[in-house]
Every structure is written in structure tokens, then in C-alpha cells.
Design goal:
21 helices, mainly alpha, single chain, two-stranded antiparallel sheet, globular, 2 strands
Length: 542
């Protein structure tokens, strides 16, 4: 059996799970079981796809046996398979976290009942984007995940969420329209939208036409990836959503944009024609993003700015355009999906235990809940790139690639990367000092629930109404579990998964370098889709 033939299941299973979950909308326990089981099975299939891609190389699956470039093609290589595994693992952890939150807060019968089918549709869209072998199917993947994200962002219908949702929708529609116009222009110029076929035919176009199409795609994907100066929408949109939604958005959605940028630069428009521009964009994304993080007092907004900043590291590796640079970028994408999601989940726990995510109103969490402090400390140091965590390994690989390139701009980019890492450490240290280290009574207007005592920090048998907070999420409840075991367990599992990237750093870097080599070579991808020897017959070099 060809394992790669299972690739469509990465998209089909979440869709089927979403349909079944929707039918069970009035049966919350069954709905949760269906959603979690669907993601577990999907993750197992994707692990097999990754193992198969590591052994056999790039494989194409032709839906309905319509050969490329006429039919729908799904392509499984090491990069796409790695992204599938990481995204589904993170999605599963967030789903378990959200399930624990719903069970604890008693809102299974509220708007959250639509969460499970919508969440699975989001996962299907992400998987479809990673597997897409043609530009229109990539567009479809984007639209699926964006449509689901509109619903998830506005769950609860509060004014801030609706306001942020409007901004998010407008920006997303603009980028999607630009992408669709680009697809139309590319089809008019080449007669195809299959990416392997385009890799052969785009080279025959006039250089000026190539540049126009190239830049249009990059702008469309740059908005989705939130690179500077196209990142203005993200810090105001993500923090208003529910904690699980913010976490999965931060971890996955921008990385789909980065994935599309990587495919554009390595497969469709190889070479170094705009590498200088990409280096400048990477540097500005890192510096401007992290300076924005320093100015924030809300932890979620601070993390949103660090999210923007660290997208710059991925563009850094893409701009270097060497096996070492691109391999480090692939590793860093996997690292950042896990670590950034972990930090947003921990922030959700901080908000529950402290009553707020505002650093000015927090304090003493290290004493009140030492385990929560540990859950923040590990991914925080990982994000800052402190040895021996995976953040350090990924950044070291990127810096090494920049030094080996040896151009003045590359050295400037290396310096910007080091500076960004140091400022990230400072931003994380500010959160630690204010939220965890100082005494609760030293905070400005601390939430009353923060002052409530608990022997283990995991539960407090009081409500915000009883504690003097009459309008909060838990108002009117006689007993509140501030750190439910399911939510803490899901967060712990994701933090440990981030630590495993350090333990398995050697094999993962080898996998990332192999993926980079395949992408820069291009021939494995093109030959897998169009047939053995297609690259050689067309006389196209990497």
C-alpha cells in the first residue's frame, strides 16, 4: 500500500468529523468525543505520511486519477508532512484545552456548541493548504480556514470581539482578493495553475512580468503571514478572541502564510532576485515587532507582537536561500508553532487564576501556583532563545547561515536577530517580574480572585461575585476551578512537546535540512507531480 494515498484523509476526516459534530450539537459530551477522536486519527495518519516522506521522498496524489496539471493534486514532501504533524498535534492540544474550559465553565449549551465543528473545519483548511499542489487549491485552503476563523474569533458576540473580527475580515478579504487576482493573471500568462507546471513555465515569461506576479503573490501571502509593514492588523485582532482560539490562531494561521511564501520562493520563483528585499523585510519585522512588544502591559498583546517579530526569523532563513538557512527556517517554523501556542495557553491560565492578563494588576503567581510559573518559564525561555532550548538551536542555525553568506546586509540581519532575541528575553522577564515574582498586594488594583488563597493553586472554592467581583466570567458561581486539570494537562503536554524539539534536535535538524535541500533542488517536487524526468526534459535547473 502506498502510504501517501492516505494524504486526502488529512482533509476529509476533519470535514466528516465537523459534520458529525454539528449533528451532535445538542449532545456536548458526544460532540467532544467525536472532535478529539477525529484529530487523534488524523494525527496518526499524518505521522505515517511524515515517516513515508522521510524514506521515499516527495509523492503526489491525484484526486480522481486526473493527472497533473489538469486535476487536483496533493503533494506530500518532508516540509508539508512536518507541517501537517506539528499543526495537528498543536490543534489536538488546544482542542483538549478548550474542552476542559467548556466543561469547567458550564457553557456547553451556549455559543461554544458551534466551536467543535468550526474548529475541525479550520483544521481541514490548514491541512488542505499544506497539501495543495496548485494555486487555486491553496486559495481554497486559505478560504476554508479563514471562514472558520471568522466564526471562532467572534464567539460570544462581545463588542471587542465583533470590532476585532471586522478588522480581521476586511484584511483577510483584501489579501484573498489579491491572491485571486494573482492566480487569474498567472493563468492568463501561462495557461496553468499547477505549481509543478508553473515551475517550468514561469521561467519563459518576460522578467518584468515575472516580477509583477512574484511581488503580487508575496504581498498576498505577506498579509496572511503578518510580515512588516503588513502586520498592523494582528495585535488588535488576536488578543480579543477566547484563549484557545487566540492560541491556535497565533500558532497556525500565520505559518500557513509563511509556508506559502516558502513555496513561492523555492518552487515558483527560485533565485535571488528579491533576496535583498526579503532581508530588509525580515529585519524590520523582527525589530519593529519586538519593540512593540516592549510597550505592552497586556500579556496577550505582548505575545501578539512577539509573534509578528519572530515571523521575521522565518523570513530571515528564506531570504538567505541556502540549505542551512532554509533548513533552520523550517526547524524554526515547527518550533514557533508549538512554543507560541504554549505561551498563549499559559496566558489563558494566568487570566483565569489572576483574573486578568494585564501585568499591572498581577503579582505573586509564582508563590500562588508554582506549576503555572514553570509552565510559563519553559516556553518563555524557549521563545527567547536561551540554551539549550529549541529556540536557541533554530536561531543559531539562522545566524550561522547569515555569517556564511557574508554580505554586509547579512551581517546586519545577524545583528538584528541577536538584538531581537535579547529584547524578547527582556519582554519575557518583564512578565515574569510583574506577574509571577512581585507580591500580589504590590500590583495596581489586583483582581480579588488573585488574592484568594488555595493550598495547591489548582482550585478556589469561591466565585468572583463572592470575592467582590460581580460581573466577571465566574460571577454567580459558588465554586470555580481556576486551573482545571484538563486545561493544565493539555498545556503541559504542549510545553513538553516543545522541550522534545531540543531532545530530538539532531534528527529534526537533519529532517529540516533534507526538506530544504529538496525544495531548493525543485526536481523531486516537479518529477513527482509531472512524471519522472520532467525537469530534465524541460531543461530547467534548480
Amino acid at each position: 500500500m502506498n502510504i501517501a494515498n492516505l494524504a486526502p484523509l488529512a482533509v476529509v476526516l476533519p470535514f466528516l468529523g465537523a459534520a458529525l459534530a454539528f449533528l451532535l450539537i445538542r449532545h456536548s459530551r458526544s460532540q467532544r468525543a467525536v472532535s478529539i477522536t477525529t484529530l487523534c486519527v488524523t494525527l496518526m495518519i499524518e505521522i505515517f505520511l511524515l515517516l513515508d516522506a522521510s524514506g521515499k521522498g516527495t509523492t503526489a496524489v491525484f484526486i480522481g486519477n486526473w493527472a497533473a496539471p489538469f486535476g487536483i493534486t496533493m503533494v506530500v514532501d518532508q516540509f508539508s508532512a512536518l507541517m501537517l504533524v506539528v499543526s495537528s498535534a498543536v490543534s489536538l492540544a488546544v482542542l483538549i484545552y478548550a474542552t476542559g474550559q467548556g466543561m469547567t465553565d458550564g457553557d456547553e449549551d451556549g455559543p461554544i456548541s458551534i466551536f467543535h465543528p468550526t474548529y475541525l473545519i479550520l483544521v481541514a483548511g490548514v491541512s488542505n493548504a499544506f497539501l495543495a499542489g496548485d494555486l487555486f487549491n491553496l486559495y481554497v485552503g486559505f478560504e476554508i480556514l479563514l471562514t472558520a476563523s471568522y466564526v471562532l474569533m467572534t464567539l460570544g458576540g462581545t463588542t471587542p470581539r465583533i470590532r476585532a473580527g471586522v478588522t480581521y475580515v476586511v484584511v483577510s478579504v483584501v489579501s484573498s482578493v489579491l491572491f485571486l487576482i494573482s492566480i487569474g493573471m498567472i493563468y492568463a500568462a501561462t495557461g496553468t495553475i499547477n505549481m509543478a507546471d508553473l515551475a517550468l513555465k514561469l521561467a519563459d515569461l518576460d522578467p518584468a512580468t515575472q516580477m509583477i506576479l512574484h511581488l503580487m503573490l508575496l504581498v498576498a501571502f505577506g498579509i496572511k503571514a503578518a510580515v512588516f509593514p503588513l502586520s498592523f492588523w494582528l495585535p488588535d485582532s488576536y488578543p480579543t478572541a477566547p484563549a484557545p482560539v487566540t492560541a491556535v490562531f497565533a500558532g497556525l494561521l500565520t505559518k500557513v502564510g509563511v509556508y506559502a511564501m516558502v513555496r513561492t520562493e523555492t518552487l515558483l520563483f527560485p533565485g535571488d532576485r528579491i533576496n535583498t528585499l526579503l532581508m530588509i523585510v525580515a529585519m524590520l519585522t523582527m525589530i519593529v515587532g519586538i519593540l512593540g512588544a516592549l510597550a505592552q502591559s497586556d500579556i496577550k498583546r505582548m505575545l501578539s507582537f512577539t509573534l509578528v517579530s519572530h515571523i521575521g526569523y522565518m523570513v530571515f532563513g528564506l531570504a538567505i536561500s541556502t540549505v542551512i538557512g532554509l533548513g533552520a527556517a523550517v526547524y524554526y517554523v515547527a518550533h514557533h508553532i508549538i512554543v507560541q501556542t504554549s505561551l498563549f495557553l499559559v496566558t489563558g491560565l494566568i487570566e483565569r487564576r489572576g483574573g486578568t492578563a494585564n501585568m499591572d494588576r498581577l503579582g505573586g503567581l509564582a508563590k500562588i501556583s508554582p506549576f503555572l510559573a514553570l509552565l510559563f518559564f519553559i516556553p518563555g525561555m524557549n521563545l527567547a532563545g536561551i540554551p539549550p532550548f529549541s529556540g536557541f538551536l533554530g536561531k543559531l542555525g539562522l545566524l550561522q547561515a547569515g555569517v556564511e553568506l557574508g554580505t554586509p546586509l547579512a551581517y546586519v540581519l545577524v545583528g538584528a536577530g541577536v538584538l531581537t532575541s535579547l529584547i524578547t528575553l527582556l519582554a519575557i522577564a518583564r512578565v515574569w517580574n510583574r506577574a509571577f515574582w512581585r507580591r500580589p498586594e504590590d500590583a495596581t488594583h489586583p483582581d480579588p480572585i488573585l488574592m484568594a488563597t488555595s493550598t495547591d493553586g489548582s482550585a478556589v472554592t469561591t466565585s468572583r461575585r463572592v470575592a467582590g467581583h460581580s460581573t466577571g466570567k465566574f460571577a454567580g458561581r459558588s465554586a470555580v476551578s481556576l486551573l482545571p486539570k484538563t486545561m493544565v494537562g493539555a498545556t503541559t503536554g504542549l510545553v513538553l512537546l516543545g522541550v522534545s524539539l531540543t531532545v530530538l534536535g539532531g534528527p529534526l535538524f537533519e529532517l529540516s535540512d533534507q526538506a530544504a535541500q529538496q525544495m531548493l533542488d525543485r526536481s523531486p517536487y516537479i518529477d513527482a507531480v509531472l512524471g519522472e524526468g520532467a525537469t530534465e526534459a524541460a531543461g530547467v535547473s534548480p
